[in-house]
Design goal:
flat, 4-stranded antiparallel beta sheet
């Protein structure tokens, strides 16, 4: 499965953002998901919701005020089921002005990273980090 998408060209889909004065190249989550569905149409993803003190929350709140977002990707292919769990960290957001990253944004980045880790699509972007 890994080598099937790993060599697909991705450069034309790259986006660029600035982070701490450094240029960061990334693949949008929708491109990663579209590529995965092209080869593995029975794929699905899930934002794993945590249960904290009987309440459902969209991430695992950490003692330092950060959040851990959990994305579970499942691929069913040729009678087999493959699962990849991907996690991302983000700082707590107390208002929209604190950061450009909402929990939804972090989840989508986690999805893109998970697709890359599971399939190799765009994995070369991580080599220089």
């Amino acid at each position: 499965m890994y080598d099937k998408i790993k060599n697909e060209p991705y450069e034309q889909y790259l986006k660029v953002t600035q982070e701490g004065g450094k240029e960061i190249k990334y693949l949008p989550w929708a491109v990663c998901w579209d590529m995965l569905k092209k080869y593995f149409p029975n794929s699905k993803y899930e934002w794993v919701i945590a249960d904290f003190d009987g309440k459902k929350i969209a991430g695992a709140y950490q003692p330092d005020g950060s959040w851990i977002i959990h994305c579970k990707i499942t691929i069913k292919h040729e009678g087999e089921t493959y699962i990849h769990n991907e996690y991302s960290y983000t700082e707590e957001k107390t208002s929209e002005n604190d950061s450009n990253d909402s929990l939804e944004d972090v989840f989508r980045k986690t999805l893109a990273k998970g697709v890359s880790m599971m399939t190799g699509f765009g994995i070369k972007l991580w080599f220089d980090k």
